[in-house]
Amino acid sequence: MGFPAEKLEGVYRNHIDDVVKFLEAKHKDHYKIYNLCSERSYNVEKFQQRVANYPFDDHNPPKMELIGPFCTDVHSWLSQDQRNVAAVHCKAGKGRTGVMVCCYLLHSKQFPTANEALNYYGQMRTHDRKGVTIPSQRRYVGYYASLVQEQLNYHPVRLLVKEIHLEPMPTFNGGQACLQLVISESSTKVFSSPVYEVKRGSPSLHIRLDQYISLQGDIKVEFFNKPKMMRREKMFHFWFNTFFVREEVQVPDAPVNGNEDVDAIPPPERSSRAMSCDEQSRVPPLSIQQPRTSSLVSLEPNMKMLVLQLDKWGLDDAHKDKQNKIYTPDFKVSLFLHRVPTDLGSVTPMEQCWSRTRQPTKFQETPSESSGNDSSESDTAEEEEEEDGWES
């Protein structure tokens, strides 16, 4: 359901007094409210104190650690009495609510797959069957389906980001763009790249990071277009969780150590398939073009390389370009990562793996300016416009 609002907002949303009257009349002493809004709350005494909070932000997926306790809570409440009902709400009562309801449908074994749960929710909740539409939110329903189907115990996994590919290039400003990458771990920004000037006609962008970025848990990756002397605009973003990055790529042995340069590594061979990757996609070649001095790099031959590939329809905001005006149908983003070896010990975020005197290496672009002082803009104008819309 939608947020139980008060005052003027209660005119166009569910008024809290009407919600109380309905629940007391239809389900007296047998209802429990589940509030998913991180941005607001209300007087829980109106609902006899039977309100549980599992908050996460609008237009975003929940933390993985939030889903299991929510499902357990709902299942426990419903199991206590056949008359018990659970009323789950966010702001509009569609996106965030749909994620958690679908996860509960999987948790309670009412549906075996994420797609079946999502389709059922879309059919029952909306007229156009567009229930949970944001790609990252749908991805997290798929994550929870994997935990249930494979009987996995979730635990945070630390990965090191090595390289990021975009291909083919989006058609901003006639094919020329100034791209910036921002990576956050949960709500904390851990990396902000320089601005990469992509020349017109460039088929792809390969961002070779000058340092490994240590990431764990729920990760948000954002791409911005930031032309000179202009305000940057959000292109797209996506969330993923490091526990579920499982697709390995085979890299042939190379004479890598702390003092040698490697001009190129042949294209990796895919060895297994993960749930978020396109089986037919081709992993582009990797290249290394500068000395490496860190102890982490000396261990690199023993570190499994993983790849996360998301196509256009798996990227938040980019998926709205149904006319392919900016992103071609085969547009995809690839992240190449390493698992942290168990004998390495703890690794702090942003641990350096390259010489600090070196400038970042770029492929098919040149840096125009550093924008490390820019704050991450989590909401675009379009997202703000959707605040009172259906997506939540």
How does this structure look, described?
It is found in: Cytoplasm. Residues 1-151 form the Phosphatase tensin-type domain. Its EC number is 3.1.3.16, 3.1.3.48, 3.1.3.67. Residues 354-367 have a biased composition (Polar residues). InterPro entries: C2_domain_sf (IPR035892), Dual-spec_lipid-protein_phosph (IPR051281), Prot-tyrosine_phosphatase-like (IPR029021), PTP-SAK (IPR057023), PTP_PTEN (IPR045101), Tensin_C2-dom (IPR014020), Tensin_phosphatase (IPR029023), Tyr_Pase_AS (IPR016130). By secondary structure, this protein is an alpha+beta fold. Among the domains are: 8-150, Alpha-Beta Complex (Protein-Tyrosine Phosphatase, Chain A), CATH 3.90.190.10; 158-250 and 303-339, Immunoglobulin-like (Sandwich), CATH 2.60.40.1110. 21% of the residues lie in helices and 27% in strands. It has 8 helices and 18 strands. The protein has helices at 9-12, 16-27, 64-80, 95-107, 114-125, 135-150, 295-298, 381-385, and strands at residues 4-5, 14-15, 31-37, 51-56, 85-89, 158-167, 177-185, 188-192, 196-198, 205-216, 218-225, 233-241, 248-250, 269-270, 305-311, 332-339, 361-363, 365-367. The strands form 4 sheets. It has a 7-stranded antiparallel sheet with strand order 14-13-15-16-6-10-17, with no helix packed on it. α3 packs across α4 (95-107), α4 crosses α5 and α4 (95-107) runs parallel beside α6. The longest helix is centred in the N-terminal third of the chain and has 17 residues, at 64-80.
